[in-house]
Amino acid sequence: MHTGEAYHEVIQASRRDLLTRSRFQRLALSLLPPGGDVLDFGAGTGIDARTYAAHGHRTFVYEPAASMQEYLFVHCRDELEKNTIVAVDSPQSCKVTAVTANFAVLNHFADHAKLFADLAHIVADGGFVLASLLNPFYLGDARYGWWRGNVFKLLREGRYSIPSESNIHRFAPRILSRAAAPYFRLEQRSPGGFRMATQLYMFLLFRRI
Questions:
Q1: 57, 65, 108, 111: which has the fewest C-beta neighbours closer than 10 Å?
Q2: Which domain holds residue 29?
Q3: Closest among 103, 138, 143 to 22, alpha carbons compared
Q4: From its phi and psi, is residue 121 left (phi > 0), alpha (psi between -120 and 50) or beta?
């Protein structure tokens, strides 16, 4: 298990992760209206939050893992002092234009129906939830026995989980779309087509109805 600081160093040293994060941040910033507030849900060490704040978006950060939160307070010290980043103990304590959840945060949930119902109370009408999830169709994982053992379950049921310490679940987009209704509609999935087989992460954009 990484400490917050160790995680921060590892993920910042990974070229693939840096490219994925850059794509996610660009998409989020292109969707946010000028000055729109955002909740970074599962903010980790605050890497995304600092970028949003630097672009003029007050950013609320929710991070339940103590080790991550501890380093977030170090990494985002200046922004926290200026209140351009605001730490919250519960997502329900803010009202925002958008919620972002990067790097598989939502893969830690077995069921998203309650989560989306809760987020509906904090996201303004017309706002959005943007999530980066592990792509269950990524063929790079086909070399692993756990992927091959679950591929038919994925196609049949749209979901599967692997018993492990991290308790990670994998979902087809339709499962998340069903959980988000009736509060959000799935507006965009990236990548599309055959590129779904080549990308470790998929980005799902849900629009508040």
A1: 111
A2: 4-139+172-208
A3: 103
A4: alpha
**pLDDT tens-digit series, residues 74-116:** 999 999 999 999 999 999 999 999 999 999 999 999 999 999 9
- CA 61 to CA 162: how far, in whole Å? 29
CA-angle at 80, arms to 125 and 101, nearest 5°: 45
> How many domains does the chain divide into?
1
pTM over the 0.90 mark: yes
Q: Is 27 among the domain residues?
A: yes
Residue 204 lies in a domain: yes
Mean pLDDT of 126-155: 97
pLDDT (0 to 100) of residue 2: 61
Pairwise CA distance, residues 30 & 113, whole Å: 27
Domain-located, residue 132: yes
